[in-house]
Amino acid sequence: MMSSLSLRARSNLLSAMPKRFASSLSASKMQESNKQNKESIKMTKLDNGILVASLENSSPISRVAAVLNTGSRDESHAEQGSSHALRVFSNLATRNFSSFGITRNLDQIGAQLSISSTRENTTYLLESVRNNISRGADILSEIVSRPELRHWEIDDAKSRLEFELEVYEQQPELKIVDMIHKASFKNSLSNSIYAPRFNVSNLKSELLSGFRQKNFTSNRLTLIGLGVDHDDLIRFADQFRLPTGSSTRQAARFVSSELREENLDDLVHVAIAAEGVGQSNKEALASAVASHAFGSVYNRIKYSNGASRLSRSVLQLAKESAGVTSFNVNYSDTGLFGFHLIGSTNDIGNLAKGLYQELSKVATSGFSNEEINRAKNSLKTSLANSLDSSQGFIEAFTKGHDHVNVEEVLKSVDAVQSNDVNAFVKRVASSKHSLAAIGNLSELPRLEELRV
């Protein structure tokens, strides 16, 4: 992997699941003092459709993010894995830079370039000291706008894609994320952010160029600058020469199904989900509060079973170590709300039954005001911490500029009513569910048995 370039996939759902096998983020990353709420955001919509947004954060480091509103959900069946491949192949030659030239020029200015993708967005983030950001933006525009995708370079780079798939396949905490999406959606959002094995050989130059031509368009591009002069950012935007195209995408359709992957692993992962709500839905914040009230990853206490409602009621049913958390992910048009269970083969059946009993209990009696207030405080801490980092700010802005004003966001959380949260939980409990599971599933009841 090249020193100045990092490639990574990111799942919104995974970020809401416990990182049982991952190290903690460094404290410095979690506490970037960008003071983003001290300055107003400047925005300009260019004639070609590019949205330019900047914020002066008084940081010695400038950051420019090219965020394209496209991801794996925009892939057709034949194009599955295109987003993953383009992420991995992003350091290959462009019209004016060789692969070596990209790396050397980034190293010469001490810049870092990272590429991440979700089901809905692909983000190219460049970071450098302020006086080098202009040169870095030149390279960024080349990578985003003018990749050559030469077939011989793609053939050589496919070993990296294969390596990522091997790592992915050995991590059930990653696979369960894709499986619950596949079990929950009939199309679009069912696509994995990783390339399926059956289609790797088809991810060639012509197919990838066609996918880019349709989805990497100027009207889907948002250029976000932190610590960058707004006029300079508008000038940088002129270097991103992308075709125009449609910004519409296929609507996601929720389905109730069950997806089980049997193996001999005694550590079983189970995800159970119902259809959630989209980012702009009025119930979006209520769904987030409900997740924290049940017990999300942010409620977890290290080296303990935790003090969340789910931990107290469900984990006591296990004889061996186990984990449970709720998750809530909001996409542009819909979402997923559900629960992630981890337990031994012998315990997983009782854990799943206990989870449904607790969900039914909350749907009937509701959360108390004390539980709702505790959940609001947890959610506010989570949102404030996220907005305090550059990456979190960029991710929030892609959902809408009203998501990045910390004071307004916290006020919106405070305004959520207990009745709205309890009504949302009641709807989730009575709606159709989907289930995904990995491991030795001999003791895990079928979905219809759990709902009896």
List the helices and strands and how they pair.
Layout: E1 5-9, H1 27-30, E2 42-45, E3 51-55, E4 61-68, H2 82-88, H3 99-108, E5 112-117, E6 122-129, H4 133-145, H5 151-169, H6 172-184, H7 205-215, E7 221-226, H8 230-237, E8 258-262, E9 267-275, H9 284-294, H10 309-314, E10 323-330, E11 335-344, H11 345-365, H12 369-387, H13 390-399, H14 406-414, H15 418-430, E12 433-439, H16 447-450
Parallel strand pairs: 1-5, 3-7, 8-12
Antiparallel strand pairs: 2-3, 4-6, 4-7, 5-6, 9-11, 9-12, 10-11
Give a structural overview:
The chain has about 450 residues and is an alpha+beta fold. It contains 16 helices and 12 strands. The strands form 2 sheets. The chain has a 7-stranded mixed beta sheet with strand order 1-5-6-4-7-3-2, sandwiched between helices. Helix 9 crosses helix 12 (about 370-385) and helix 9 crosses helix 15. The termini are far apart.
Q: Largest sheet, order of strands side by side?
A: 1-5-6-4-7-3-2
Order of helices and strands: EHEEEHHEEHHHHEHEEHHEEHHHHHEH
Structural class comes to: alpha+beta
Alpha-carbon distance between the two ends: 51 Å
Proportion of residues in helical segments: 25-40%
Portion of residues in beta strands equals: 15-25%
Biggest sheet character: 7 strands, mixed
Summed up, the helix count is 16
Q: Name the assembly state.
A: single chain
Number of strands: 12
Could you report the average pLDDT, rounded to the nearest whole number? Answer: 90
- Shape descriptor reads globular
Radius of gyration (Å): 22 Å
